[in-house]
Structures are given as C-alpha cells and as structure tokens.
Amino acid sequence: MVSAEIELRGHIIDSFILPRVWGAIEEAGAHFHVREMRIGQSETEPSYARIEVSAESQRLLDDLIPELQRLGADLAEVQNARTALVTQPGVLPDDFYSTTNLPTEVRVQGEWLPVANIEMDVAIVIDHSAKLAYTTPMHEVRIGDAVVVGYEGVRVEAQERPRQREAFGFMQSPVSSERAKALAIRDVASAMVAARQHGGKILWVLGPAIVHTAARGSVAELIRRGYVQVIFGGNAIVAHDVEAAMFGTSLGVDLKTGEPVEHGHRNHLRAINKVRSLGSLEAAHAAGLLGDGIVAASLEHGVELVLAGSIRDDGPMPGVITDSVVAQGQMREATRGVEVAIMAASMLHAIATGNLLPASVRTVVVDINPAVVTKLADRGSAQVMGLVTDVELFLSALVDALPTT
Amino acid sequence: MVSAEIELRGHIIDSFILPRVWGAIEEAGAHFHVREMRIGQSETEPSYARIEVSAESQRLLDDLIPELQRLGADLAEVQNARTALVTQPGVLPDDFYSTTNLPTEVRVQGEWLPVANIEMDVAIVIDHSAKLAYTTPMHEVRIGDAVVVGYEGVRVEAQERPRQREAFGFMQSPVSSERAKALAIRDVASAMVAARQHGGKILWVLGPAIVHTAARGSVAELIRRGYVQVIFGGNAIVAHDVEAAMFGTSLGVDLKTGEPVEHGHRNHLRAINKVRSLGSLEAAHAAGLLGDGIVAASLEHGVELVLAGSIRDDGPMPGVITDSVVAQGQMREATRGVEVAIMAASMLHAIATGNLLPASVRTVVVDINPAVVTKLADRGSAQVMGLVTDVELFLSALVDALPTT
Amino acid sequence: MVSAEIELRGHIIDSFILPRVWGAIEEAGAHFHVREMRIGQSETEPSYARIEVSAESQRLLDDLIPELQRLGADLAEVQNARTALVTQPGVLPDDFYSTTNLPTEVRVQGEWLPVANIEMDVAIVIDHSAKLAYTTPMHEVRIGDAVVVGYEGVRVEAQERPRQREAFGFMQSPVSSERAKALAIRDVASAMVAARQHGGKILWVLGPAIVHTAARGSVAELIRRGYVQVIFGGNAIVAHDVEAAMFGTSLGVDLKTGEPVEHGHRNHLRAINKVRSLGSLEAAHAAGLLGDGIVAASLEHGVELVLAGSIRDDGPMPGVITDSVVAQGQMREATRGVEVAIMAASMLHAIATGNLLPASVRTVVVDINPAVVTKLADRGSAQVMGLVTDVELFLSALVDALPTT
Amino acid sequence: MVSAEIELRGHIIDSFILPRVWGAIEEAGAHFHVREMRIGQSETEPSYARIEVSAESQRLLDDLIPELQRLGADLAEVQNARTALVTQPGVLPDDFYSTTNLPTEVRVQGEWLPVANIEMDVAIVIDHSAKLAYTTPMHEVRIGDAVVVGYEGVRVEAQERPRQREAFGFMQSPVSSERAKALAIRDVASAMVAARQHGGKILWVLGPAIVHTAARGSVAELIRRGYVQVIFGGNAIVAHDVEAAMFGTSLGVDLKTGEPVEHGHRNHLRAINKVRSLGSLEAAHAAGLLGDGIVAASLEHGVELVLAGSIRDDGPMPGVITDSVVAQGQMREATRGVEVAIMAASMLHAIATGNLLPASVRTVVVDINPAVVTKLADRGSAQVMGLVTDVELFLSALVDALPTT
C-alpha cells in the first residue's frame, strides 16, 4: 500500500470538486481517508479538505494523482516539478506530464511558474535558466528539452461553477434545440462586445455551409464591423466564397434562387483554377474577382486567415496550407490573444481548434446537427456553449443583436 | 396472360410519368407493348401514349392498374365505376378502391364525377341518386354504402412537374439545412399572402417546442395579423402556453433567462389544474389567466383550435379531445378550405394532418431534426416543402417577412 | 426571512446529494447555514448534515423544499402530512404535492406509510381509515379524496450513485453510439434473466419499425422463450404485423427482398379491414391469418397486449383503445410488477410509458436516433440505459445473448 | 440563337435519360426540338432520339452540353476532342473539360480512346503520340500537357437503371434505418465474395469509432479472411488501435467494461509516443506492441494502409502522411483495381475517397448518422448503397454472413 496526501480548497462542494475527487478515487479502486475537513457554513464561505489517498501499487497511484489534479486537487507535500531530457527529436520521455486546457503552474526551484500557452494533450518544457515553462506539442520537442515528468510540482486551477447566471451561464446546460435561442444570441453578442472593448481577439471557425446558405453576407458584415480578427477554415469555404463572387453560385446552387444551375457543378473548379492562374487570393482581390465576400472583407480589414487543407480538397486554392502539422502550428500561433471563439457549421476545423484553445476562451459551437455540437461541447472545457440551431438564421440574428459601432 | 390498355397524356416525359409507368410495370413482373405514341416535338407540346399492359394473372393486373393510375395513367376503355355494398359497419368490401391524395374522378352512369374531400388511404362512396361521390374513412362506412371496388371508372390527375421556379419550387429538392433559408422563408410568406387574398385558410400544426423556445410570441403575432385560421395541436402546447402566461416558464424553464427554475417542474401541472377548476380555456381567458399567448390570441381572433390528446398527456386540459377517432374526425372537418399548411416542431400531429390533406394544399414542414422533415415530406405529396431549420428563428424571420396589414 | 431545517444522510457527497442541494438553494436565490456536519472519513462511511435553509418569502421556501426533498433532503422537524379534500371531480387542491418517480413515504398519524404505485407528476391520496397512501392522476380524483398538500410529512428516497460497475452501470454515462454495444447487450440480457428468475415482468414498448426492419421474428422468439410479459404499442405495429403475416410486406415493402411491391401501399389497409370484418385479433388468429408474428405469439403465450391508438391511425384495428385516458389507465395497471422495461424504436408510446414507471424499473431505451434516446433517458430516472443503435441488429444480438431455457 | 444536335440511345425512357435531358434543357432556359424519335415497343427494345438543342448564347450552350453528356447524351456531329496546352504549372486552360466519375471516351484522330483512371472533377490529358488519354488533377498538370477543352469529342456512358433486383439493387432506394438490414448485409457479402473470386480489391475506409466500439476484432477477422486489400484511415484509428493493444482502452475507455479508466485520457498519447520512439508501426509490430489489432493484421497480411493526417491529430503516428496533396495522390494510386469500397463510421476520409472512385466501384456507406450517409450517398454515383445502422453490429453480422474460406 502506497499513499499520497492531497488538498482541496474553495467551493469544493457546490463546485462538485470534492464528490468528483472521491468518485475518481473509488473508480480507480483506490481508497481515501479524510485527514482534515472544514466545511463552509454558508454559500459564501470556502471549504478545505486534506485527504490521504492510498492504492495497492505505485503505478495505480501515479495514474490517479494527475487525474485528481485535473479535478482540482493539489498535492499536500510541495515539491519541485521533475523533468527528463528529450533524447530523440519528436519523442517525449515515457512518463511525460500530459496537460489539460486549464490554467497550470509548475514548481521550479521552489517557485510556482505559470505554464505559457496552455492547451490540451501536450507536454510542458521548462527552461531552467530563464525560469520559464511553456507547452510544446510532441512532434516539436528537440533533443535536450527538459520535459516535466510525473505529477509532482504541477498545480492545476480547476474551474469552479459560476455562482450567478451570466453570459455563458448556459455552460452546464444540456445542449438543446428546445431552448430559447434569442437569449443565447444576446449572451454571445455581449461576450463579443466585452472582448473587443479591451482588445481581445474574436476567432471564427467557418465551414463551407456558411456560403451555401447565403450567410456569407452576415460574416462579411461582422468583419466590417470589427467583430472578426481571426478566421480558421479550409479550402472549401474559400473556394465557394470566390465561386459566389465570380458566378453567384455555391457548389453550383444559385444563391439568389436556391436552384441548382446546370453548369454550376464546375463553378468551384473554375474559381479555384482562376485564382491559381493569378497566383494568390490577394492578386485575385486586386483583379476585382472577390466581390464583397468573406475573403475580400478579410483582406480589406486585416483579418488573419488560416486555411488548412484536407484530403477532400479540389485544387487547392493558393493560400491553403496542405501540410497538417504546419497548419496546426499556424493555427496554434493565431489563437494567442483570442478571448471568444465561434465555431459555425464546421466539424474538422472546429475539433482541431478546440484542442488548441485554453479553457478560459469563451467558445460557442453552432451547428444544426446535435451530434456535432455534443462532440465539440464535450471536449473538456466548461466554457463551451453549444447551440443546436440554424447557422444562417443565427448569424443574421447575431448581426442584428450587435451594436453597429 | 391477361391484359388491359392504358393511355397517358400531357407532358408525360419531362414529368417522369411515362418512365415511372414503365418502371412500375417491369417491377411488378408484368409486360407492356406500345400501341401508339406521339412525342411532343418541343418543350411546349404534349405527348400521347397508348400502351397494352399484360400480366400472368388477373390478381397481378388488378394490383398493378391502380398503381399506374396513381402515376397518371387512364384506362383506355372507359367504363363506369363498380361498387359493392357495405355489409358490416366499419368494414369495407374486400377489393375496395383505396384513394390517393390527388384529385380523383369516378365515372357514374357515363359521367365523370369529382370525388369530394379527397385524402389518402380512404374509400370512395357513391351516392347514385344524388350523383355524388365522396371519400369516407374505413371506420365510418355504414351498412348499405356503395363503395367503389376495383379500378375501372376511376381517374386520377397526376401532378406534373412544374416548369419554372415558383413558390414551392423547392419541392423536388432534397431537404437540406445547407440551403439558403432566407429564400424559402420569402416563398412561404408569399404563399400565405396569396392564400389570404382570396380567403384561403392557413392551418398551423404546432408542437410544444414552440413554447419552450419562446417562439410563442411570434405565433401570437401571426394570429393577430390574420395569418392563422386553424391550429392543430395537443395537450402539451396548450398546457405550456398557459404555464408561460401564469408562471413565465415552459416545462419549468424560465423563458426570460433560459434557466430552469427550481419549482418549475410542477408549473404545467398547476396550470392544467387551474384551468380544470375553471372548466374551460374560455373561462380561464375570461379570468385573465392566458396573458397574450397563443390560446388567448386564438380565442380573441376566432382561430379554430383542434386539440387532440395522446397517452403521454398530463391532465388533460379542458378542450383536449381524448378519443383519437373523434379528434381525427374534427381535424378532417377543419381541413376543408385550407390552402396552406405549416407544420412546426410537431411529429405526431403533423403526420396525422399530412394523411388528411389533399395534395393540392401547399404544405411546409419545419423542424430542426432532418429525420422528422424527411418522414413528413416523404408522404406522397409533391406540394411539401421541407425545411430543416430552427423553428424559433424561422418564425421570427417569417414574421419579419410578412406584410403587416 | 423565513426558514426551515433539512437533514441529509448517507453517501451525500459522492452521490452528489449535498452539492446538488446547495446548488438548488443558491439557484433559487435562497441561503443556507450548516448547523451540523459529520463527513465520512473514508469511502465506506456515511455522512450527515443538518442545514438551515432561509428565504425571503414563504412562497419561495414552499417552492424550494419539495425540490430539495426530491434531491434527497428530509425536513428536520417531523410532522404529519397535510391533506385537503377534493371539491371538484378531476381537480386537485391548489397546493397539491406533485410526485417524483422515486420511492416515497408520507407520515400519517405519526407513522411513515409507503406511497403505493409511485409514478411521476401525480397526486398522493391518503385513506386515513385504512392507513393507506397511493398515487392518483389528476383526472381520476373524486370529491372527498384527501390529497396531500404542501411538503411536510413527505419523504423521498433519493437514489445514490452505485459503487461498482454492475448491470446498468451505464446509467450515468452519456448516451453514445461510439460505445461498445456488445457489453451493453450482455447487461440487458442479465437484467432480463434476473427479473424472470423471481417472476418479475418484462415490458416491451414497440414501434412499427420493428416490423419494417424484419426484427419481428426476434420479438416473436423472445415471446416464445418467456422474455415478454407485457407489450405496449399502437395501431401501426399490429397492422404491419398482420400485414406481414397476410402479404409478406410491411408498409408495402417486401420483407424478403427489401423492395417495395407495387400494390403494397394498400396492404396494411387490407389487413386492418380483414381483421375488422372478423371482429377481433383473436378471431383473426383462429382463422389462421396471423402466421407466427408478434400478435400470434402474444396470443399463444398469454402476453398482455395494451394497444393505444393515436390520431394518425388508419382503421383502427380491433383491440386498439382509441381513448387516450382509458389507454393510459390500462397501461398504468399493466406496469404493476414490471421490473425491466425495454423501449424499442418507439417515441410516443415510450414517453407515455416512461411517465408511468417508478424509478426502480430498469429501463432500456433503444433507438437509432440519438434525439429520441436523449429525450427518453432524460426523464428523471437514474435507471435508464440509453442505447443509440440499430434496433433490428440489437434484437438479433439480444436473442443470441439470452439463454434458451 | 445557336444550336447543337444530340443523340440518345438505349433504354432512355425507363432509365430516366430522356426526361432528365429534357428537364436539364428547360431549366437552363434553352429549347429543344425533336428531330427523330424511335420508341422501343416493349420493355426489352431500346429507343433512339435525335434532338436539336438551341440557346440564346454560345456561353449558355457551352455550359449546357457537358451537362447533357453527363446525363447520357452524345453530340450528333462527331468531331475530335479539342485540346489546349498548359502554360502555368498546376493551372488548367480556362474552358477545360471537367470529368464525371462515369466511363468516358475522347475522340483523337478519328478514334475513340477510353480515359484511364476516371474520377470526378479532374481534367483529361491526351498524349497524342502514344494515343493515350488519362485523367490528371488540377495541381498535377505540367507545362505542355494537352488538356481537353470544350465538349466536342467527349463521350460519357451514362448508367442505366438496372432491370432486376440484384446486389446493390438498393441503390435507388432512399437511405433508411427502417429497412431490413439483414438483406442488405447479405448483398454486401455477396458483392465482396464476387469481387474476390476474380481478384478484385476490397477497399475499407475506417473511422476511429471502429475501435471505440470494439468492432476492431471484426475488422481484423475480415483481414485474416482475405476480405480487405486496402485500408484508408487517419491518425486516430491507428492511434486507438495501438492504444487498445497496449492498454486495453480506446480514448481511455476500457474496451472490456465500457467504463472510462481514470488515467486513460493519456493512453493514446502514450501509444503514439511509444511508436514514435521506435520509429515505425513495423518496428512496433516487431516489438510485439500491436497485439492482434487492425494494424497488426494489416502488416501480417500485406494490406495496403494509406493513412492521411489532418489538423486535429495528436503526434502524429509514424506512417501518417501529413501533406494532404501527397496523401490524396497515394489514395488515388491505391484505388486502382478496387471493385468494392466499404466506408464505415468515417466522414472526412470517406468523402475524400468518394471523390476518387469511378462510378463502377460498388460502394457501401455505413454510419449511424443519416446525415453522413446522405452526404456520401449523394455524391453522384448510382452504385452507392447507404446503410443507416450501427457499425459495430453491422461488422459483426457481416463477419457471420461471409464464408470462412
């Protein structure tokens, strides 16, 4: 029998931290003994618990403790984080610490350092000389990097349940189409305005259905009003946006009548081919081919466009990054400073983005398919608001709900 | 080998009538021989075909011919309709003719009579003395009714494919959420206005999610503007509409904040109980309990409310018809004169209504679940427009798209 | 400021009872003060808490306390239940106590009586002379019935979270199609075998897709093996089961080839008409028309068939109860003694059944549409296992997983 | 007014070729005049039509004719195909001919040459000296390539509707979960056996849910029995297959109990990291880490694994191709010789594959989400059978339906 002592602090009961920690211990087949417990006497007082966790094997304990940390437990005995050096490029030490997307600190020479650029499922590298800690994805670690191993000296700030209803108070709610969307749209608008007031960036992840459904104009309007700083998308949304500008169709469907046009099947290929012949989206814009669509508005208003390709692409469009590791790297860079992320009618790009965002980014997932929303809203962040609704009508209502300035 | 001759007239090629007829013959294992064929030389000229259909057994032919009639074929040899008398109440003669929802005529004493009140899957009764033909559901036939049997002397007017895009030009389109909804909403609004201009009735079939999503105000507004003549619904929509008026919640969720309220769970029961104690919705309205909701607006503007109960109901509310056969009968009556039917967020009531409507009624099915839309849009009528979208946002946009007068 | 004292006992932390109670108090805008708290020191020791709940108005407190009871709280001050007499038939006293589906007791003359036939959203009637308490739906209360009002003297046994994985250990899991179904099927089979070993009844709620998908043979086989005591269904499943027996089709689709047969469209009407002419399903069985289908097997093995009609029905079939209140009453009766309930490819009947079942019945909801499963699994019972899977293949695998005896 | 003459031959009426051609002409706003028409007199005789198509502008006609070719029309006046030379690498001539996935021929120096490696939406390059024609994707054309432009000298073999039910007779049927799956599974098995008997390859496109649902064993069994020649997948399926072999979990869920294991969250990262440290999947197999999973069976039985990465990947696994254009190229190569393609629980990879496959490949799309099946089944090929069902149970039933040899 081996054991370790953990501590829990704060609103550990109504934030479900204590029961989840107990549940995790039991499910792992380990045991606990409460060493000390002070329960807040009313809803405003914090509580405290010191608990001994014991397990039959070190292996079991080593697996369990990081899980408890993720739930909000700290080790009672304070140690420095242990590190091991990388010996093969792109390969981590065996017992590397794998991050959550929650605010995290590591203890280096007796001091708690915040881990920079937190995201899920990556490693923590410590630069001992500069006293810095930062995340690094597996494939980017280099020989000699000091990677945190084990769980000692790592501290995660679990998210407590918010006390009052606020924007994003939806977050614990089950995702549902049977809820009043008007309220949710107002909340999203408020979060966007708040982010812009202190210069926080708003990130949009857009799927091609945005163009098929004629919501393209709403997105361009949001860009012009300053509510879009970064766009993540793929080859398709750009191809159809240019197709719409050049031919008035999206995947061959006339955007004015909703009817397929006979020759329309080829239009997105023609649009891609034309931009390829000119060499870049910028050149196509200079040539007046992009109309007043999403790409045109992005170029005019300095929106950062990160276009990540995939194996289903035709062409692809110039500007689309075909290597997924390179694309992921650029997306990672572009998420710095993002405070609100809105993922609309996108699955692949939305999931990829969700993996990169810290839990503190207010994230809205909008899709008409509840399976997509559930998949994205389930990815571990308490800050995700899932909206099962029609993206075209959502965007149109969001434009109406935002102040024009 | 037995055989019969059929005739096809009109735009039988581009309306897919001829190929469907041939296909049906082949799939049934029967054979055909073209006796005469005149093909229209251009898109404006009609065509004509006379075809001999032969089958190995009379049974097979008897099953096949009505199917071909449904597709638009007429028997070449003109006969009077045959009838058989009902000998058991509520039981049809064995080989009764089962209707489609298309305009139908029967030949009585050498004369083609239109069949009144056409709907799907019912029988045709002929009143020889009054020279009238009308549909009757199985359970309503009485001893002595002359019911049409076999297929001779029955003529169905198949629907041709429309030539140009028009309102409801969506109809052959696959149901999709990836289409521009703004266009479709404009089409629906036009059809509603057109119906009202010559006094045609607009029927709404409403599910309870209308109230949960706060779209209740939109429906009440449409009633006040005169775009609602008949409402079909169940116990739930009325219960939640009254709950919203009395407590500001719907199934216990606060409609202003979107948050569940603790005691809300009981509110719909309290609302039902209150109306039961007063005896009727009218009395509750007189007592000022219904606010400005759907029921209140309906009572004030003379909307015909047909409320059909089901086994999942609490209460039920006074006014809800608990016997399904009686309810079906009242719904059948109320569909007379309906020109536009809009089914929103409803499944049971929408399917029941779809079975009762003639194919000529312009029908819109709106639901966020594509499975529901497909199920309803598949029910045999070419006039159904399926819209996979958010009902709350759809209704709000529809109100905006309709003239105020 | 008014207040009341509540008590919590048992595994109130890891069963989430304490945090939920605190959360409910806060969300209601009320306050709490912990008067006494003893926390279990390890995973096997129970805990105890005595908490004062205070609110700004009696109304708020009166709404909150029943909610806390539902979560597992008891009033610290023990009183007898209060009752009020019914003065209008079918109408409850204003502040009637509305039940949960959890085991419930009421205190009568100092004694805790169990409430018989617990189900959700109904009233409790006390027979003081016989010292009995039982549930009664709103529409069945008669003048003079003593109905429990307020919340004093009512005690609800909240369900604790199970400690180990067991059959129905899935219950807290999110419903998902991305889980190993083979495990779940084994669990369902075990629960069925266990129920039968001590004579518990197994209830099946069946939708018509059972027949369309040819799973009809699997259900009949389960009946023959003794795993079906009660069936709830509607007009459609019986109509298609008889259609399959008489014509080899289901809604006109040939069950051997999967192809629509031309004349098949009428077959279910013919089947209904034939049974109507004979007068009953029993007579049709005697006439050899039912083959070896679900109805035939039910009649041969004494399965209780409760068929509840709806407004979408053709016919209907003899034996179908058209009045929804009568049908609900018969379903209520037939649920007595049920230990396992399996709802397959049904929505209306499944929801209606879910409302009637006590939380202690192990319930499985199987549907390929996640929306249906979520809707049913959300209805408040911890004992519901939701399975998003193909009903035909599920039934075939379940037959394989069950012992033959 | 400009015009061109087209010819139609074969079962042009019951294969819907003639009505579709007429419809396409009308929808484009063009006109037609029937010059000659011979209608088959019975279901076995072919028909013939010569039709003059006229339009108001050359542009409109140039857009319309390729569409009519796609539907099965040939130009009456036989010419050689026109070509234009590529002047920028990766950019096609403006009016390049964009392929369908149907068998296609081009006329070169008076001779009809088959177009090799047909797939959708690519260009045709003619090698005049070698008298060869083959498809080339846009980004692969090189300066000097002779690309077919316009529509003259191109002939497409439209697919006629099959006469009898056969394997893949489902193809015109609407995709539905309410159909008998047992029949469909038998058809798939027959098509697989038939393909193997003459050495045709079977391609599987697999999503990661295959491993989550424990269907991994079924796939490995199919590999061992020789029913898998090519697998397309991504990083996730390989990562979870190795995770399952190393830890018994998939995305942290224990495959034996269906329960999440506490530390499981990290397991797929550990698995990827381990394989990275060894350098390749082959090395991991040699080290005994892959158990009897999909990758192990693939390596042992010479299955061609094409793993295409995406931006959502962790790691990635050695062997995963991160550049989407390179991956698409390898997938393109690997589809040569494929006769049956089965896409299971995959969306991105399945759509990408669908774009590459000729219409003659018998393709089965299996997913529990009808939206995915519809999306894939809609992609233009008549040979696609869509099955809305549970992939785990489908695979298990398919293994049972296939002969063991």
What are the segments of chain A in which pLDDT stays under 50 over at least 5 consecutive residues? 162-175
- Counted beta strands of chain A: 19
Radius of gyration of chain A, taken over Cα atoms and rounded to an integer in Å: 24 Å
Could you state the oligomeric state of the chains shown? homotetramer
Largest sheet, spatial ordering of strands of chain A:
16-13-12-17-18-19
Cα separation of the termini of chain A: 64 Å
Largest sheet of chain A: 6 strands, parallel
Strand composition percent of chain A: 15-25%
The class by helix and strand makeup of chain A works out as: alpha/beta
Total domain units of chain A: 3
If you consult CATH, what is the topology of the largest domain in chain A? Answer: Rossmann fold
- Architecture of the largest domain in chain A in CATH? 3-Layer(aba) Sandwich
Shape by Cα distribution of chain A? elongated
Helix content bin of chain A: 25-40%
Mean pLDDT of chain A: 88
Query: CATH homologous superfamily of the largest domain in chain A, by name?
Result: putative lor/sdh protein like domains
Q: Any idea of the CATH class of the largest domain in chain A?
A: Alpha Beta
Largest interface between protein chains, with number of residues from each side:
B-C, 56 and 55 residues
The number of helical segments of chain A is 13
